[in-house]
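Please study the protein below:
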Amino acid sequence: MAAGFSTASAKGVDFEAKITPIVIISSIIAATGGLMFGYEVGVSGGVTAMPEFLKKFFPVVYGRVEVGADKNNYYCKYDKQGLQIFTSSLYLAGLTATFFASYTTRTLGRRPTMLIAGVFYIIGVVLNAAAQDLAMLITGRILLGCGVGFANQAVPLFLSEIAPTRIRGGLNTLFQLNVTIGILFANLVNYGTAKIKGEWGWRLSLGLAGIPALLLTVGALLVTDTPNSLVERGRLNEGKAVLRQIRGTVNVEPEFADLLEASSLAKEVKHPFRNLLQRRNRPHVALQIFQQCTGINAIMFYAPVLFSTLGFGSDASLYSAVLTGAVNVPSTLVSIYLVDKVGRRVLLLEAGLQMFFSQLVIAIVLGIKVTDHSNNLSKGFAVLVVVMICTYVAAFAWSWGPLGWLIPSEVFPLETRSAGQSVTVCVNLLFTFIIAQAFLLMLCHFKFGIFIFFSSWVLVMTLFVMFLLPETKNIPIEEMRERVWKKHWFWTRFMVMGDQSCNRQEE
């Protein structure tokens, strides 16, 4: 199963490494943290479209949808702040929790942080499935958010640090693959439970989130921590032993020396979050801003609601949501296969054009149909909308989906890696929260124009990648600054100025 290869470092020394079973198995286990995130992204939209759930917690929305209120403004029938808080409270809790997760990731390690994530998530699942009132429901969502915040902090770091350089992109993308599997699993569950009479349908949908939580919790007990984390915490002998184990060779001295050097620099940084404000770290912080501006989570959160709003029947809307989830998974496999072959930039540029075109077509079709005041799309237009949404989802799945997590996890130096990942997760969840909270209101007021809004952001993102994002393929994780940022035509000025500032402080 092990295949040998070596990776050349910037210092002219080879890092020997094999694709060992322990790396593959540990990566698969850790990546189950993405299942939790994906399941929550997928389940909320389906549950909020279930009449019994709306009747119990959001009777005003239930009246609009079931009784027939607001017939003349079908884009606004789900516009209720309480309903949006149900979805977005998880992400608000997650972005808060990630700062605590930064501390545990740095001081306790990546593995214990994943264990904490699983425990938070399990408690949240129990409260959600047994919820008797809105307060209990939101409390459960907040605890789920804490689990997501801790998992999203630890898992991408774990995957990037344990992986050999040449397959780091593919292994890190396992996190996003599990996110897409979680979304698909949630959509399938919602499709089945929507047919169950009474409250058992939505309770089962929310309760089955316990499956990915148990997988991560048990998995965290089985894997070992990364050499980078062990060395960072002063456990040098154990870190070296683990490095030999995961690389499948005793000749790990060059890579271990890099870890020691990075650890030495990390110990000099007393305030990692303050260190992020230095000029040389600002480009890294800027990378995560765009992922949520694609509008992907707006579609994934509310896919059943969105399709219902566009004129599909309730069963058809859930079926369409399942279809988009089914497109998501194989498209992420495309990224796993190509990310270490063609690089990060090629995938982002191609997908940017594809997403822009898809959203523009959807806006034009819906704009034409809405002007004739028809509450339902014809079969041909409905199929076209679903095809374009699937085209858009596929492009996101092999680009901004996995690479939005991969690139930040591999570009931060060790001294600010935990803090940097916290900022990454925080920015991601902050924009997720904002869009989740605002989407139904935007849908109500923008109508079909919401797709023009997101396509404009996609165009801006694509230009950013074209001119400002360097390639990180096949670069050792501890040498990004020297080999990537300092050689980039624009960001090099930040690196040089940052180094000069550090030298002045030392003097």
User: Anything to note?
Assistant: The longest helix spans residues 414-446.
